[in-house]
Write a structure and sequence with these properties.
- The structure holds two protein chains of two kinds.
- Chain A is built from ten helices and no strands.
- By secondary structure, chain A is mainly α.
- The chains are: A mainly alpha, B mainly alpha.
- Chains A and B meet through α1, α2, α5, α6 and α7 of A and α1, α2 and α6 of B.
Chain lengths: 188, 160
């Protein structure tokens, strides 16, 4: 029972990190919670090695990332065909976007930190998986383009294109939301 | 100029993303995990990977009945052999059993032939139309299933 109490404390220390990792990759709260649960059940099996290990956080993050990616490939591939149809027919975000954006320094100044973070988080979760997943792996998990291509089983060119498009969509969304009343600066 | 803006934006975005705080995990996560953890290992492992005494009661009963029936069958065969029922008699019984299946096979072949005859009478156009209806029904089922999936598993509101 002492083990269970220690594990609960351990879990409370890391639950937000594990959940965030899954949530940013999956963009679905219930799926992220399921993955986080699986991660901690795995951790419980190795709790003897993890409890005093300073690298426990890194281990949990790696497992959460791998399990989220496995979850995506296992449960979503069969629906991707239809999802792509809807997206291409709907928002048109898959097409090349001519971006009207504010200069980054203006974006930074406009909102306070909490609001900006909320907007960034929300915009990130609205991205289609094909753009969000490589973007998160690159910026948040520190994967290289090559590692992302190998992990997702796609070409290096596709990874670069998806990340570029994801950034462009975020720039478009964030510059619109961050500066609703201001005219766009002239493009040079 | 665009390249310059792209790389500037990539840097800003990188900084923004890295500065994002962790999202709060749902309150239910700890209780869900602790509930699973405190269950005996036997419950977390699927039944077919557990020893027989830990199988569910229904499966234990069914497996026990199958085992007893197999044992009874073996005893019956052993008794028959020891009381003069030769192997020839056993083979005879088996061949009778197989011939009853042959009769069933013949009936199935006749049914398929009748179906082929009907298709031949209907003509190519009607057959193609029937196949099209079947294909369309299949596509409709898949589309309906997809729509239900997307409706059921629609994104939940952002936890922020």
């Amino acid at each position: 029972m002492a083990d269970a109490q220690q594990f609960e404390t351990f879990m409370r220390n890391y639950q937000n990190m594990v959940f965030s990792t899954a949530m940013r990759l999956l963009a679905n709260q219930s799926e992220a919670e399921d993955v986080a649960q699986e991660v901690f059940l795995k951790a419980y099996e190795r709790f003897d090695q993890l409890r005093d290990n300073p690298r426990a956080g890194g281990w949990l993050k790696t497992v959460a990332t791998n399990m989220s990616l496995n979850h995506l490939s296992r449960y979503r591939s069969r629906w991707s065909f239809f999802s792509e149809l809807v997206r291409r027919g709907g928002s048109g975000e898959e097409e090349e976007i001519e971006v009207e954006f504010a200069a980054p320094d203006l974006v930074e100044e406009e909102l306070n930190q909490a609001d900006r973070r909320r907007l960034v988080e929300h915009a990130l979760q609205q991205l289609p998986p094909a753009q969000r997943v490589p973007l998160v792996l690159f910026h948040l998990e520190g994967f290289s383009y090559e590692q992302i291509a190998a992990r997702l089983g796609v070409s290096l060119g596709k990874v670069k294109t998806d990340i570029h498009r994801g950034r462009a969509v975020l720039r478009k969304k964030l510059s619109r939301k961050l500066q609703p009343d201001k005219p766009q600066p002239p493009r040079s | 100029m665009n390249d310059e803006h792209d790389s500037q934006w990539a840097e800003v975005l990188d900084r923004e993303l890295k500065n994002l705080p962790d999202l709060p995990a749902p309150d239910t996560l700890v209780s869900r995990v602790m509930m699973s953890v405190q269950q005996p290992a036997s419950i977390r492992v699927p039944w077919y990977r557990r020893p027989w005494p830990q199988w569910p009661m229904g499966l234990q009963t069914v497996s026990l009945l199958i085992l007893l029936a197999s044992f009874g069958g073996l005893c019956r065969v052993g008794w028959g052999i020891s009381h003069g029922e030769t192997l020839t008699t056993a083979f005879h019984a088996i061949s009778e059993w197989i011939s009853s299946w042959r009769a069933l096979g013949t009936a199935l072949v006749a049914l398929v032939q009748a179906f082929a005859l009907i298709l031949g009478k209907l003509g190519t156009a009607v057959t193609a139309a029937c196949l099209s209806v079947v294909a369309l029904s299949y596509v409709a089922c898949v589309a309906l299933g997809t729509a239900l999936y997307r409706f059921t598993f629609a994104r939940r509101p952002n936890p922020l």
